[in-house]
């Protein structure tokens, strides 16, 4: 072993030196050179840092640099994230997206253009004017539809979601607020009044019939006495003897 090579290293190094840092790594760790000013030192990491990708070999695992426009990559020719100002598309970093695609500034990727989509129109509303369906001859009716898919930046914009057209209705007067209730109340009172009147008339009729019945009964009781008195008077009447 070279005098400046140590076996008792820290930080995952298998071998190291005071000047160059790690010279080799423990199993499964990746070896990468880091620049500190004018000096490069070796370090051993569990995964490669941003801008590097890992390759495994029988004797050593190394971190290699991605292409200049890649922030992270899977291999040197396949980027997974681009640096600022570039858009990711199929593993490549592009300044401008291909035709048929658009740049997504949120994900920094080239994505498909999405056009607006709407639902079917609803049925036409009742003919109205100033929020009322009565008291006029000409009004308006409307129908609506909903947006089910909002467009992307370069997609076709959404059309109008409401439509209105003029309409004609048979003119009728508006019923005043509370008038219907008032009419029902008046009808109820009238009905109660009629029922009360009929009840009073029935009571009067029953009283009259009862009075007539009592009077007939009293008459029936007094008639025999009158007939008796009449017979007695005939017996006491003087007999005409002139003949």
Low-confidence stretches: 239-243
Total strands: the figure is 17
Q: What characterizes the major β-sheet?
A: 3 strands, antiparallel
Tell me roughly what share of residues is in helical segments.
10-25%
Tally of alpha and pi helices: 1
Mean pLDDT: 81
Topology:
Elements lengths: L4 E2 L6 E5 L3 E5 L4 E7 L2 E7 L6 E5 L4 E5 L4 E6 L2 E5 L4 E3 L2 E3 L6 E4 L4 E4 L4 E2 L19 E7 L2 E3 L12 E7 L10 H58 L7
Antiparallel strand pairs: 1-2, 2-3, 4-5, 6-7, 8-9, 10-11, 12-13, 14-16, 15-17
How does this structure look, described?
With 243 residues, the chain is of the alpha+beta class. Among the domains are: 7-65, Hormone Receptor, Insulin-like Growth Factor Receptor 1, Chain A, domain 2 (Hormone Receptor, Insulin-like Growth Factor Receptor 1, Chain A domain 2, Ribbon); 70-112, Hormone Receptor, Insulin-like Growth Factor Receptor 1, Chain A domain 2, CATH 2.10.220.10; 118-147 and 154-167, no CATH class. Helices cover 24% and strands 33% of the residues. It has one helix and 17 strands. The protein has one helix at residues 179-236; strands at 5-6, 13-17, 21-25, 30-36, 39-45, 52-56, 61-65, 70-75, 78-82, 87-89, 92-94, 101-104, 109-112, 117-118, 138-144, 147-149, 162-168. Strands 1-2-3 form a three-stranded antiparallel β-sheet, with no helix packed on it. β8 and β9 form a beta hairpin. The longest helix is centred in the last third of the chain and has 58 residues, at 179-236. The protein is elongated.
């Amino acid at each position: 072993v070279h005098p400046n090579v140590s076996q008792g290293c820290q930080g995952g190094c298998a071998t190291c030196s005071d000047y160059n840092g790690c010279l080799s790594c423990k199993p499964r760790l990746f070896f990468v050179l880091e620049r500190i000013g004018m000096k490069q030192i070796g370090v051993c990491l569990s995964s490669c840092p941003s801008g590097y990708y890992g390759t495994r070999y029988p004797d050593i695992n190394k971190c290699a640099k991605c292409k200049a426009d890649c922030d992270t990559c899977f291999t040197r020719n396949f980027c997974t994230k681009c640096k600022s100002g570039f858009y990711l598309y199929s593993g490549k970093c592009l300044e401008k997206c291909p035709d048929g695609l658009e740049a997504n500034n949120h994900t920094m990727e080239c994505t498909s253009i999405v056009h607006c989509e709407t639902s079917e129109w609803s049925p036409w509303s009742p003919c109205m004017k100033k929020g009322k369906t009565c008291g006029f001859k000409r009004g308006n009716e409307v129908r609506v539809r909903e947006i089910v898919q909002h467009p992307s930046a370069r997609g076709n914009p959404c059309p109008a979601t409401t439509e209105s057209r003029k309409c004609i209705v048979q003119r009728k007067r508006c019923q005043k607020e509370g008038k219907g209730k008032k009419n029902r109340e008046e009808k109820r009172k009238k009905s109660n009044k009629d029922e009360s009147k009929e009840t009073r008339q029935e009571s009067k009729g029953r009283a009259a019939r009862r009075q007539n019945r009592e009077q007939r009964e009293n008459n029936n009781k007094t008639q025999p006495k009158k007939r008796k008195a009449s017979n007695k008077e005939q017996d006491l009447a003087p007999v005409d003897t002139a003949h």
